[in-house]
Amino acid sequence: MAAQLQVSQPLRLVFVLCFFSSLASRSGDAAPTLVDSLPGFDGKLPFRLETGYVTVDEENGAELFYYFIESEGDPRRDPLLLFIPGGDRCTVLQALLLEIGPLKFIIEPYDGTTIPPLQYHPYSWTKAASVLFLDSPVGAGFSFSRNPKGYDVGDVSSTLQVKTFLTKWFTEHPDYLANPFYVGGSSRSGKIVPFLVQIISEDIEAGIKPIVNLKGYLVGNPSTGESIDDDSKVPYLHGVGIIPDQLYESIMENCQGKDRTKPRSILCAEDLRRFNSLYDEIDERHILYKKCTNVSIGHIDLTTERKILTEETRVAKHPPLRPPMDCQGYAKYLSYYWANLNITRESLGIKKGSKDEWVMCDHNSLPYSPDIMSSIKYHRNVTSKGYRVLVYSGDHDALVPFLGTQSWVRSLNFPVLDEWRAWHLDGQSAGFSITYKNNLTFATIKGGGHNAPEDQPERGFTMFSRWISGDPI
Questions:
Q1: pLDDT tens across 158-185, in order?
Q2: Looking at per-residue confidence, does 320 or 460 come out higher?
Q3: Which of 4, 133, 283, 333 sees the fewest Cβ atoms within 10 Å?
Q4: Is the pLDDT of residue 297 over 80?
Q5: Any catalytic annotation for residue 238?
Q6: Residues of each domain in the chain carrying CATH 3.40.50.1820
Q7: What is the pLDDT of residue 75?
Q8: Per-residue pLDDT tens for 92-151?
């Protein structure tokens, strides 16, 4: 008769604790969630939505959350676009529900007690491509870290984490390796996108697997990290009639038109005071819109974040001020309530206790190092390799004016292949574009602001669908 192994109670407890510890360590590799319905939307979703987490920092337990929406066309053949949000740790849900995704909020009076209603968006970019929406860096949206040290990232380290995310995601989704692959982003992710594409291209050249079918990238109203973005505000606001000739000429003379944050003289300081007083009269994200309360501002309390995965916490603690319904920020106001509903989190597969209060953007409460001083060199490196690139700007954006973007694109000194011309929708000009050698296109979206596809959804989709399919804009 075989001897029985006798296990003491303390040892059994150790085995149990080790077992659950092992499960916790693998939590980032949990199966994705297939979402067939969402709160606020009537009926089943008319597209395939998958959500999930990928661990990008094993030491600190940092996990990035994603939403993957398959193309509504031919997902086996259509391109795959990774979309990275901009802003101060802003969630990619802004792009998904307000800009380029297949759902949008219905703008109607809301009292904060019901589920904000959603409707199908006919100009979704998912009609032309599968889109992988990513909450990056750690701390944005539903991405989180078990150890608070995991939130201490910057431009470079967060980009490397996105590369880790892609390696793991493609390993789990090998069917998409053959699809044409693009990276996209807007605003501050204009620094991240070209750097990420350069890293991916170097891995391809080195034969590092999985090898993706990288074709190019696109950036909208992109920041570069250089003063060229800010320097273009003075000539732009002069050109659209917000500052007068006299002030423009005085700034050019006294400040040399540069570095508005550091006046070079008393005369320059006075000019900039007058400039800023006029600048404050407009909505910098769209000069034609009414100036409203910024509802995207949020704060993540690290004392709360230290509690994650140990206890449940209440959400929707600090709702933003309700803006008028004709403010662009009203949809952001609705998104705050929608994302902080328990039923929403359950539908999306959000890990319980991983996020206390969800905010659209976390402004400066978590450490972040803006250590990419300039993205222009990465744009030059990648375009010189022949990858397709689309740089676009809403022509009513005063935050990152198209004048500065157009200027650095020209500074790459690529020969012009297709001169500046209008591009059309329904027989009318929808913007203007110019195409350079090395597959580089710069385009404006007429009537668009800093988030041009949100302001002009049909024009934004038309531009994207033509470009991603290889057709002239």
A1: 999 999 999 999 999 999 999 999 999 9
A2: 460
A3: 4
A4: no
A5: no
A6: 28-225+370-468
A7: 97
A8: 999 999 999 999 999 999 988 899 999 999 999 999 999 999 999 999 999 999 999 999
Assess whether 296 carries a catalytic annotation.
no
- Contact in structure between 133 and 67 (CB atoms under 8 Å): yes
The strand pair at 440-445 and 428-436 is best described as: antiparallel
- For the stretch 302-359, pLDDT in tens is 444 444 444 444 466 778 888 999 998 999 999 999 999 999 999 999 999 999 899 9
**At a CB cut-off of 8 Å and minimum separation 6, what does 208 contact?**
none
- Residue tagged active-site, from 223, 271, 450, 455: 450
Q: Is 450 a catalytic residue?
A: yes
Q: Per the residue annotation, which of 187, 250, 354, 433 is the catalytic one?
A: 187
Q: Which two tokens stand for residue 372?
A: 């990419």
Beta bridge partners of 180: 213
What amino acid occupies position 283? D
Note the pLDDT tens digit of each residue in 410-435: 999 999 999 999 999 999 999 999 99
Would you state the torsion angle of the CA atoms of residues 56, 57, 58, 60, taken in this order, to the nearest 10 degrees? Answer: -140
Q: Assign domain 28-225+370-468 to a CATH class.
A: alpha beta
Q: Which of 203, 229, 395, 397 is catalytic?
A: 397
